[in-house]
Amino acid sequence: MTPFIARPMTNAATSLGRIRDRIAHAESIARRDAGATTLIAVSKTHDAAAIQPLIDAGQRVFGENRVQEAQAKWPALQALTPGIELHLVGQLQSNKAEDAVRLFDAIHSVDRPSLVAALARAIDKVGRAPACFVQVDIGDEPQKGGCALSDLPALLAEAQAAGLPVAGLMCVPPAGLDAAPYFALTAKLARDNGLAGLSMGMSDDFEAAVTLGATHVRVGSALFGPRA
Ligand SMILES: *Cc1c(COP(=O)(O)O)cnc(C)c1O
Predict the structure, then answer these.
(1) Residue closest by Cα to atom 13 of ligand 1
(2) Ligand 1: which atom is nearest the Cα of residue 44?
(3) 28-60 CB burial, b ≥16 within 10 A, e <16
(4) 97-121 burial, b for 16+ CB within 10 Å, e for fewer?
(5) Each residue of 74-105: pLDDT tens digit?
(6) CATH number at residue 50
(7) Is 165 inside a domain boundary?
(8) Is the pLDDT assigned to residue 8 strictly greater than 60?
(9) Residue 75 in domain
(10) Which atom of ligand 1 approaches the CA of 65 most closely?
(11) Whole-angstrom distance between the N-terminal and C-terminal Cα of the chain?
């Protein structure tokens, strides 16, 4: 690549600027500190050619929902640009826990005791510990993953006892409904449990999530365009 020829701003880079502005505006409406929200660019299904322009535009935090897909794409991209932070936002099978712990800096889908145990073993074996978000089944939709609200205190206690670095809670509200009440409830659950991290908000609702205290928003299609 010839460094002195300016490349045209790609759509991805333009979208990144717009999303960052909208996050900043939502932070200011809610009187939150500028930069209090981390934007996770969810790059699932998109290839390196689609991702690299975002890296070139300064984005360093990315999300994937499948371990194998991330293993195939990210090591090469990370070799080109140091300092990239990878978040697993999709459901995780216990037999992939070790691979996930090797590759990811954060795991947003801790939702059951068997996965807590598998992650604790993997962290011990690999010698690195990704930040863990406990996913809450906030809309009572078990097919989406997430632990039932009634199981949350016990799961948090297990995760902490197993030594997982529990950063906060994560939720995916029901599609087609106003997400704000679900974000507010997730924020309350985090507060009640003394957790600072809140992973909530996607392309269609990240501003509401930011005003309700999200520390991490997970934005895919608004950055990359629709997925195939
Ligand atoms: C795909 C995905 C996202 C991003 O969704 P968009 O609507 O494309 O922004 C966020 N969170 C999770 C858990 C996802 O699977």
Answers:
(1) 89
(2) 1
(3) eeeebeeeebbbbbbbbbbeeebbbbbbebebe
(4) bbbbbebbebbbbbbbeebbbbbbe
(5) 999 999 999 999 999 999 999 999 999 999 99
(6) 3.20.20.10
(7) yes
(8) no
(9) yes
(10) 15
(11) 28
* Domain membership flag for residue 1: no
pLDDT tens by residue, 151-200: 999 999 999 999 999 999 999 999 999 999 999 999 999 999 999 999 99
Give the DSSP H/E element, type plus range, for residue 75. helix 67-80
Sign of CA dihedral 225, 33, 28, 186: positive
Q: Is the pLDDT of residue 135 over 60?
A: yes
Nearest CA to ligand 1 atom 15: 90
Could you give the number of structural domains in the chain? 1
H helical segments located in 87-202: 97-103, 113-126, 152-161, 180-192
Tell me which residue has its CA closest to atom 12 in ligand 1: 89
Range of the domain at 58: 9-224
* DSSP state at residue 145: -
* Residue 97 is assigned to a structural domain of this protein: yes
- For residue 215, give both structure tokens: 């520390």
Instruction: Using the structure block, give the residue that is written with the tokens 């097919």.
Output: 143
Question: What pLDDT, on a 0 to 100 scale, did the predictor assign at position 9?
Answer: 56
CA distance 132 to 79: 25
The pLDDT score that the predictor gives to residue 2 is: 47
